[in-house]
Design a protein that fits this description.
Chain lengths: ~220, ~375
């Protein structure tokens, strides 16, 4: 059997009638504030204020703010985004706008022509980064984005959103390393598969040639 | 005429004179923060200092949450639930995740259940400490108690930032678990916090409970009998302060709450003083749950690997899931037609329903008591207006 439930009046020290010893409770409370005030001059853990513009509290590695796009290599050509629009669909406030780039025949080039995020609408939830199957969009840690430009200053496009893989590695070393390793493994697998395909094709071709030769020889023999 | 069927005879004024319409004073309290609780307005009619009628007006913070949820995917509603009761986002997340899990029949791994209990109880610590601070602020203790409470709250929010990526807008629960695992060393930090928290509670109790001004202003103010509260659908600490032992963690244990040993604190009269004290007692019980959960925290998966993040579709059907939120029974009712979006999405917000008896609590009391009573209900307008 559990101990009986505590009740509110039982744990309150003064009698319900109050005022029997006027002021004792008040003085007790004031003693607490006095202790706090004195401690605030010498105890480090009581000094909780960070003088913001001059000093900054460190952000935790999990901290997320607005999203950015990652590119491999040195420039925008290596943008990982394939304009699949999954993030656009899942975005809760619908602040992502994507247009797929196509060549003159209307064939998909698997890259975004337009990739806009309206940061004034974005609510930093991180769902875009979570659903992206191409490791191309991640949450940033940048929080000083105030601008005086009311029109378009907070509408980020492809160019302003793009960051290098180095930036990602610096921001979130653990996550970036894991992603890089996975991508490398996938790349190697792909390369290996391609090499195997080439080798197989070569083998088939050789066999075909050999067969043709044999047949030719047979033909001449007959 | 002042007529309050719930008012106890002792608290009711001895004789009620006939009211002269010309002598009544109409006061519009709000909507600019009547206390520190958000954009909420009360149209109060006063006879001298006595409240004759009180009509709550809300909707200033209406964001169309339920309708928006019908237009976006199931997962996309998760970050919106953070903004319901923004003091305690993680319990909102849990209630919604539980409703979808019930709808789609998704199992939750053991470690995820423990993570949910730990985050939910930490959220309760935040809510109840912040409540005490705000409540004292309502009474005119400007800032002191609130700053003490927020100092401790900030420590918990730091833990949340490390775990979920944001102090308040956590967006942490997923259908079938949680978004990410506990970072290295997080559980140890949480244990330290839980072990140090009672010292702060003692400090806060010393600061306020014995205070004669507080006792004079809160005892025998705003009490309603049990029957009225039960009929009004009031839940949470407000109901328990009146002595009704109803806690969903015990009445209908969800998650893994049946594994923990804790008690339900009860009040005796249900006045504002009891409503504040019940929060102190619940804080201690939450700490007991946290200690047990952090001790037992198992290794394993933090999310069910079978649950889908992209293109999640719930089967056709309906589900209602409820949890004991820090403010009361928080429920989510979902109807699915088999598509990626919910067909109907409905929330049972505790603060909104706890507000329904506000007039009954205030009738016959002074204007100064109204603000205290509103504070003791512990509302968050993000949840009232949705």
């Amino acid at each position: 059997m559990e101990s009986p439930a505590p009740t509110t009046r039982a744990s309150s020290p003064p009698p319900a009638a109050g005022w029997s010893l006027p002021g004792i409770g008040l003085l007790k409370g004031m003693a607490v504030t006095a202790v706090n005030m004195i401690q605030s001059y010498y105890r480090k853990d009581r000094m909780t204020t960070v003088q913001y513009p001059e000093e900054r509290a460190p952000i935790s590695p999990n901290f997320r703010n607005f999203p950015f796009l990652v590119y491999d290599g040195d420039n925008m050509a290596g943008l990982r985004c394939t304009a699949c629009s999954i993030c656009e669909k899942e975005c809760p406030p619908q602040c992502i706008y994507i247009v797929l780039d196509r060549d003159e025949n209307g064939k998909s080039l698997k890259r975004p022509k337009v990739f806009d995020i309206d940061v004034s609408v974005c609510m930093n939830c991180g769902i875009c980064a979570e659903v992206c199957p191409f490791d191309s969009i991640y949450m940033d840690g940048q929080y000083e984005l105030a601008t005086g430009d009311r029109f378009g200053g907070l509408l980020f496009n492809k160019e302003t959103l793009a960051r290098s893989t180095d930036y990602h590695a610096q921001l979130r070393p653990l996550e970036a390393a894991e992603v890089a390793a996975r991508r490398k493994a996938e790349e190697e697998k792909k390369l290996a598969a391609q090499a195997a395909k080439v080798a197989k094709a070569k083998l088939e071709k050789e066999q075909k040639e050999l067969k043709a030769k044999e047949e030719q020889e047979k033909g001449t023999g007959a | 005429m002042i007529s309050n069927p719930f008012m106890s005879p002792a608290a009711a004024p001895a004789s009620v004179p006939e009211l002269d319409e010309d002598q009544l004073l109409h006061v519009s309290l709000g909507p600019q923060h009547p206390s520190t609780h958000g954009v909420f307005r009360m149209n109060v009619v006063l006879d001298g200092e006595t409240v004759v009628s009180l009509k709550p007006v809300f909707g200033y913070l209406h964001r169309n949450h339920e309708k928006i949820a019908e237009g976006v995917t199931f997962l996309s509603s998760m970050p919106f639930t953070d903004r319901l009761d923004y003091i305690c986002p993680l319990t909102n997340n849990w209630a919604y995740a539980q409703a979808v899990e019930k709808l789609a029949g998704i199992e939750v791994p053991e470690r995820a259940e423990y993570m949910r209990v730990i985050t939910a109880e930490l959220t309760r610590l935040i809510n109840h400490t912040a409540f005490v601070g705000f409540f004292l602020g309502d009474m005119g203790a400007w800032g002191t108690a609130l700053m003490y409470a927020f100092r401790e709250r900030e420590k918990i929010l730091d833990l949340f930032e490390e775990l979920t990526g944001a102090r308040m807008m956590s967006n942490f629960m997923r259908f079938g678990g949680c978004r990410n695992d506990l970072p290295a060393g997080w559980a140890a930090k949480a244990s330290t916090l839980v072990n140090e928290f009672p010292r702060f509670l003692d400090e806060l109790e010393n600061l306020i409970i014995g205070n004669e001004v507080l006792i004079a202003r809160t005892q025998n103010v705003g009490a309603l009998p049990k029957e009225a509260l039960i009929n009004g659908g009031i839940t949470g600490p407000m109901l328990r302060a009146a002595g009704v032992a109803y806690d969903i963690r015990k009445a209908e244990p969800y998650g893994i709450y049946d594994r923990f040993k804790f008690r339900i604190p009860l009040g005796t009269t249900g006045d504002c003083y009891d409503r504040m004290m019940i929060r102190f007692l619940e804080l201690r019980e939450s700490l007991a749950i946290l200690r047990q959960a952090l001790d037992q925290l198992p290794e394993g998966q933090f999310i069910n690997p079978k649950s889908k993040i992209r293109n999640f579709k719930a089967p056709v059907g309906e589900a209602y899931a409820r949890i004991e939120g820090p403010k009361g029974e928080l429920g989510f009712y979902l109807i699915s037609d088999g598509s990626t979006n919910p067909f109907r999405y409905r929330i049972r917000p505790p603060s909104f329903i706890n507000l329904t008896l506000l007039e009954d609590m205030c009738l016959g009391l002074d204007l100064a008591d109204v603000v205290i009573i509103l504070g003791s209900v512990d509302i968050v307008l993000g949840e009232v207006d949705r």
